[in-house]
Design a protein that fits this description.
single chain; 508 residues; mainly alpha; Amino acid/polyamine transporter I; 17 helices; transmembrane; transport; Amino acid transporter transmembrane domain-containing protein
Length: 508
């Protein structure tokens, strides 16, 4: 790829588990490894705030509250539906949205629109399942995805099935954004310097630009908990909506490219055509993201018997998905209308806009789009890094039996930033593997929620809901396997530039 901004598109690319009968026996909170150690609560004839049950009306449901209050995801439970909108938008719109028009070059108008619509409904449904599963009828709150997976599939199986996908969707997404921001910075510099490098004296190297981004990201990451970054998520959601809207409006206003063709791009064989279609479907599936942080977002909300947390969470998700649809569908449809099959896998509609209208679009507009994308990366980094921060702090609090001091928290977050920087420098071709690794993570959003609903809620056998979830979950696993196969096929056919510790230069 010519720049880190340009990525190869997915290498083309009942009853809940029972709690203890005693009101004073706490189950330990299941998290990403290492686990949170259970806290001993002395017996008392008076029920206190550590009770694990649905409490009386007006009282908040809690599990292991002392240690929960020490961790960044659950330290603050004063969230609301507006916060849910902000966080869902920030986590739900990413760079994958700009590649949606490219999937239409393979699927065409009809199948592209059908697949995009069905995937939107599918992802919204599994979002709803996760929201409902956040609290069981016993009052136990699952504020982390792996925690819910362990309850549904068992301790060992749940960890085995969910650990790698969730880790990739959290830390891996942060690393990918770090790699891609270099290409966006390159484009921004080229725009403000007149599309040449002659005006730039001693430009920063790729690694130096990575370091600038990491320093800014870790500085913002000093906010103590997930609720405290609501305004950052608001900024991330706004910048995502604005830059997507600007791109598709400009593309329509400029009448797209000349001699546009809407003939689908064919491969050299029927096998190639099949894998290209699978990878295009994978592109659409990857665009709808954020399932790995749904439970975490809901964990920031208060919950009572009268108003459980699922009510404001679902209200916020519906509003957020309405806005997401107003971004994704215009980008996909307008982008394909404007550029047809001239959209490439590298960069999608953004690179097409620059290629065909870079000269007749003002530098201020193009520079603004690039800056909005960079700000969006910075904001999205925060919410995707939060599960990693929570995991690191859970290890500390489990060992020390006390909350993290501010300097420990800062050090742990700086440590993650350094690790992300190291991986970005060591494996700069990571976006080229997005189809392969992303396919492994697809069950988190397509299949696992359906399986977990049947295993935890135990709907009556042979009912519509029972059959529907098993079939939909099975179909999700099939899609995931096919996308992984498509990723492998793309790597075999197109190859991967294995440049270990050799990131592409920002200015060439």
């Amino acid at each position: 790829m010519q720049s880190s901004f340009s990525i190869r598109a997915m290498s083309i690319s009942a009853n809940p588990p029972s709690t203890s009968s005693s009101l004073f026996s706490l189950s330990h909170l299941l998290t990403m490894s290492p686990q949170i150690a259970p806290l001993q609560v002395p017996e008392s004839p008076v029920r206190d705030s550590t009770t694990v049950s649905i409490l009386e009306e007006g009282e908040e449901t809690k599990i292991n509250p002392q240690q929960d209050d020490w961790l960044p995801i659950t330290a603050s439970r004063n969230g609301n539906s507006y916060y849910a909108v902000f966080h869902t938008l920030n986590s739900g719109i990413g760079f994958q949205a700009l590649l949606l028009p490219f999937s239409f070059t393979i699927l065409g108008w009809a199948w592209g629109t059908v697949c995009l619509s069905l995937m939107f409904i599918w992802k919204l449904y599994t979002h709803w399942l996760l929201i409902q599963l956040h609290e069981s009828t016993s009052g136990k709150r699952c504020s982390r995805y792996i925690e819910l997976a362990k309850i549904a599939f068992g301790e060992k199986a749940g960890k085995l099935m969910a650990m790698l996908p969730v880790m990739y969707l959290s830390g891996g997404t942060c690393v990918t954004m770090l790699i891609m921001v270099g290409g966006t910075l390159k484009l921004f510099i080229q725009i403000v310097s007149g599309h040449s490098t002659s005006h730039v004296k001693q430009p920063l190297t790729t690694i130096e630009w990575y370091l600038v981004f990491v320093c800014l990201a870790i500085l913002i990451a000093q906010m103590p908990n997930l609720n405290s970054i609501a305004w950052i998520s608001l900024m991330g959601g706004i910048t995502a909506i604005v830059h997507c809207t600007m791109i598709w409006i400009i593309s329509i206003d400029k009448r797209g490219a000349r001699d546009v063709s809407y003939d689908t791009v064919k491969g050299k064989s029927s096998v190639a055509n099949a894998f290209r279609a699978i990878n295009a479907l994978g592109l659409i599936a990857f665009a709808f993201r954020g399932h790995n942080v749904v439970l975490e977002i809901q964990g920031t909300m208060p919950s009572t018997e009268k108003c459980p947390s699922c009510v404001p969470m679902w209200r916020g998700v519906k509003q957020a998905y309405l806005l997401i649809s107003l971004c994704f569908f215009p980008v996909a449809l307008a982008g394909y209308w404007a550029y047809g099959n001239k959209i490439s896998a590298d960069g999608g509609i953004m690179n097409a806009l620059r290629k065909f209208h870079g000269q007749d679009t003002s530098k201020a507009v193009m520079g603004t789009i690039c800056m909005l994308i960079i700000i969006n990366y910075l904001c999205s980094f925060q919410i995707y890094a939060m599960p990693v921060f929570d995991n690191l702090e859970s290890a500390y609090t489990s060992r020390k039996k006390k909350p993290c001091q501010w300097w420990v928290r800062s050090g742990l977050r700086a440590l993650f930033g350094c690790l992300a920087l190291f991986i970005a420098v060591a494996i700069p071709f990571l976006p080229s593997l997005a189809g392969l690794i992303g396919g492994i993570a697809l069950p988190v959003s397509l299949a696992y929620p359906c399986f977990m609903w049947n295993l935890i809620e135990k709907p009556q056998r042979a009912t519509v809901m029972w059959y529907f979830n098993w079939v939909l979950g099975g179909l999700g696993m099939v899609v995931s396997v096919l996308v992984v196969a498509g990723g492998i096929w793309g790597i075999v056919v197109n190859g991967v530039d294995l440049r270990f510790f050799k990131p592409l230069p920002i200015l060439q």
